[in-house]
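Practice problem: predict the structure.
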Amino acid sequence: MRGLPALLRAVPATFLRRRTAAGRRSGAPALASGQAASRGPETLADLIAGLPPELLQRALTHSSWVGSRTGSYERLEFLGDSVLGLVIASALYDRFPDREEGGLARLKAFVVSRASCVQVAEQIGLSDLVLEYAPASERRRRDAARSPSMLGDMLEAVIGAVYMEFGFEQVRPAVVAVFEEQMEYAVTAHVDHKTALQELVAPRGLQPAYRLVEETGPAHARVFTSEVSIDGAVRGTGTGTTIKMSEQAAAQEALTSFGARTDGTRG
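Answer:
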């Protein structure tokens, strides 16, 4: 995971402060579902609402809007990606003491996937925040608010921003809470094997490549066989009554070859 050693260092005490009602900044944005009014541990929406305006705007700035990429959200996204990964990894480690590494890796890959980040961005109303506070023209703000890819990136960027402002110990429970539904789904429901495989190998700079290798049976009852290759080597083969089903089966076999099985145990 990128940046993990830095995140494991002690967090400076000044980063661990909690905001009081008197200390909330003027002009702080309000997010969806009345989260900022919740009691008890602060939600991710609370923490975003407490960001300094310049830090919030940086987290909502696409690289195409500024002359230098360092002025965009990309550096915060890099940091937020590592914070999110560590938060979810530690939560899964605590919750499932009997799961081996492969099972934990599969669960984490789904929870921190781009699709999950987009769902959480929608859940907390990040698109509304972009429309109101992103430092760009109205057209660009609308385009960003409608772009799942940009919203997913911006979610990681704001996670990086709240980590910078409030520290890991305060960010951790807020991120766990907002990703709770994704963690429950990963454990109890079907997880797309192709997505799980892609998320598993992506940190290694690799991408799965699928190829249809055989079609058999009559026209009304075709059976398809597909294989998936990673870095030029075939890692899984599967069959199904549709090409998509055969690719899913191939991805499942590939996950097993990497030690990540759908039942959460090692192969």
